[in-house]
Amino acid sequence: MLLLAALLVLWPTPVWADASQGAQLFANHCAGCHRSGGNIIRRGKTLKLAALERQGLASAEAIAAVAARGQGQMSGYETVLGEGGPEAVAAYVWAQAQAGWPPA
User: Fold this and answer.
1) What is the mean pLDDT of the chain?
2) Domain boundaries, the chain
3) What pTM, to 2 d.p., does this model score?
């Protein structure tokens, strides 16, 4: 119990807050093109695990960089997502990809 309390004090943002924030930001700003991890613009550029790995985006950090600055036809959303937003969205996307994008 003491260890958990110490982690909560030392951890800058609770993991569950990032997950919740990431899910909400994704729903508000990303789901229009990436519903359930798909891609309505370019079929092969989905957020499914195999596609992310194929694109060299096999980590939350790599996904956050794309969310912030964009890549290819996708614009960057750093300003829209706000401070910590790209990282929160990326954590959500990476977790969903690893889980196979289960229905919400």
Assistant:
1) 86
2) 15-98
3) 0.81
